[in-house]
Amino acid sequence: MAYYWFKAFHLIGVVVWFAGLFYLVRLFVYHAEAYQEPEPARTILKKQYELMEKRLYNIITTPGMLVTVAMAIGLISTEPEILKSSWLHIKLGLVLLLIGYHHYCKRIMKQLAKDECKWTGQQFRALNEAPTIMLVLIVLLAVFKNNLPLDLTTWLIVALVIAMVASIQLYAKKRRKDKEKLAQSELQPELASTSVE
């Protein structure tokens, strides 16, 4: 029975942790883009994003990570022989990378708060794809274990994930260009009126 409790709360922890990681880096995107806003909007937005990032990291994302790791240890304690499985070694390696990513996000938060971060919104959008890729790999390993299929279906799923990531990046690029066009069209009448004067 302990195994099922550990597994249930492990899955809950994973969902909470990934939700926090996905939203946290999305906040970084908005935070970085706030620097392009005129004052006083820039200062107001920066303060709001800092507050949201801290709360998300401390109240949701980090507890989600801790529950995930604690329940994983509980799961392994119920079946210690699983530690001999090669798929688990790969999965644990990915989880360690994810924990590193989690702590790297904390570092970025501190840099953003001190106005020392040079990343653009577009770079943060790309960074936000890292946990998606790790999530897909971790889930595939957890489901298929040592029998991970490498047939046509698997490669189609990989292609689908890559296509999703590419479409998100293209959409972000389109939004940025549309915003630039709108800003230029708003400047045209102002430039025309100043040249007349």
TrEMBL record:
Cofactor(s) this protein cannot do without: heme b
Principal location: membrane
Class of enzymatic activity (EC top level): oxidoreductase
This protein's pathway: Porphyrin-containing compound metabolism; protoporphyrin-IX biosynthesis; protoporphyrin-IX from protoporphyrinogen-IX: step 1/1
GO cellular component, as recorded: plasma membrane
Its EC number(s): 1.3.99.-
Reaction(s) this enzyme catalyzes, per UniProt: protoporphyrinogen IX + 3 A = protoporphyrin IX + 3 AH2
Keywords: Cell membrane, Heme, Iron, Membrane, Metal-binding, Oxidoreductase, Transmembrane, Transmembrane helix
GO BP annotations, alphabetical order: protoporphyrinogen IX biosynthetic process
Quaternary structure (record): Homodimer.
Name of the protein: Protoporphyrinogen IX oxidase
Organism of origin: Stanieria cyanosphaera (strain ATCC 29371 / PCC 7437)
